[in-house]
# Entry
Amino acid sequence: MKRKSAVVVLVVIVAGWASYVAVAAGPNNRYIIFVDALGQPIGNATVKYFAVNEFGEEVPSGVVQLATDGTPKTPLPSGYRSKPVVLTHPDYGTGEVVRHYYGQQPNEIVYITPLVRRGSPEAARSIRGFVLNDANQPVPGVSMTCSNAKGPNRLTISAIRAVTVITDKHGWFQMYLPLNPRAVAYEMPPDCRYRVAVKPPRQSLLVPDVLDISNDEQATLVLVSDLPARTLIFEDANGPITEPEKLRGIHMWLRLPGSARNMYFEYGELKQARKLPLGVFEPWMSYKDHPYRFNTMQVTAESPRELHFVLRPETQESIVLTGEVVNGRTGQTVGDVFVIGADSTAQDLSAITGDQWDRIHELGSAPSLEDPALKPVRLIRPFFALARTDGNGRFEMTANTSQLRDFVIAFEKDYVCIPHYLNREELSKLRESATVDVGTLRLYPSATVLIRPLIEEPPVRIRAKWKIETDNSYGWSRNLNDDYRSARQFLTNHYLLPNQVNTMHIPAEVDVQIQLEVVTNLTWDLGQWEPLLTESINASQGQRIDLGRFEFTPKMALYVEVLDPNGKAVEGVAVENWTGPHDCRICLTGAEGIAEFLVARSQQGEFAVRCHDGHLSQTVAYQASGPADANRVYTLQLSEEMMQALFGNKTE
# Structure
């Protein structure tokens, strides 16, 4: 399998990522391969996978062996729910599979571990060492989880959800970071620090900890056992919670002394752990997609052995949401339109046909949630509560407190639906009154555009986002922009399927442009493709416009050379590429002092190096005007003051 190296480190934040092995190798399935942190296949390894039982605990489910090319010798089971699988190899160690992506071969799906071969040059840049107990004995089976890595200038260089390695029978561990979405790790510089959560196995009776580990040298970590074992009991109004569905949803933040140190546990880990550090325990339960809070507890050495966490009572089983709907352009109230409670992840309603709208409009003033006429809406934007405005545009909608989502949305044919964001903390304080007025929901006239995005390398998704041009002088369009921002852009982050015709709603009667961006590898935006911006569109309400085909082209490379005051290359500096006030990517310089960035063929921005507290920075502006600017090298020569701030010593 041919793979090319890459030197771009992308800062990508993902919430809630889960790795599931849900396919098997075969002629009609994806081709599975396991690789190390450098993207190289790990052959002849053992892969263990774990199912999740009804209590949220990991249960061993099976073992497969890998062939020399990193592919399973026997198919992995299809469709099971699992925690990340665990890979073991004598030359690499043991690590969990943390995420997957689509490879270069047809139907290839790649599973990645934060491991490199022992004795390799990369191993010398990994965090590594032994975990011992307070009797100086090695501790096998310790989970070492890293979710924060910083470079020499203490800027985050890898925004990762979590990567985990496990100590072997000698207590040895080794972890190589970062992993980027292309599965090719950048060569890590010296003096990198990783914030690692250390969780010993239950039978060890050792206390978990959070430690900063440097990749400069081998570490020896000593876990203590002198704290008393404790039992954690979670209760609701009926006493101790025993329902598996509820227990599975219990989570906890454990805030250790010092605000920057904290640990995260799921219920399965809490049940298995007998000793926990001292600190502030902040548990909550996610049940039926709603967060419920327990009491917070400060635990000291004198605290009782049995800790009871009581679920805060919900004073109301249901809550009434009231408000009004107005035409955002005219300000007049709108009667007989629908209002729903929904989440923030769905698409717009541009795919609903005229006949489907006719059946929706035939519904009465109090339609059922399960009415067949509303099925097209449910398929696009699932909802948990429903109401219809009266002749004065007022609505009253009852929602179960356990079902509250993020948004209340009014919708109607040929209107842009702006979600109204519900502040959960405010709602939790207002539940005693049982009624909350969400204020005014605005509907804006819309048109429908047809777009066909073309790209040669699926699987990808195309993210489409409309924006009103800044020279609009209409007063109501400013309200539209304000509503757009308050809804956190969820409405206009529309996803299109590549190489086929898609529909999308845009505001009518204003000048609008649509920006298209490629999102590859499920939720990862790799930034390898240039975004596209349509020409200005000003459509009338209800109009359908075919925008035609849009073909994506790859970005080009620009380089930044970072030198010290004497002209020598500086390794391990985090260089930032700012293309807007909130748009920044980071890349580390390699041994030759070079950082590489992929940019659009027509783009301007600024490369910057900052010290960790932000009080000092050095920048160089750039402007790419076409293919002739590809591979251009920009130089940042750091001052003595910057070198001192970054590395703590003067140049020689």
Q: What stands out?
A: The radius of gyration is 27 Å. The chain is about 10% helix and 40% strand.
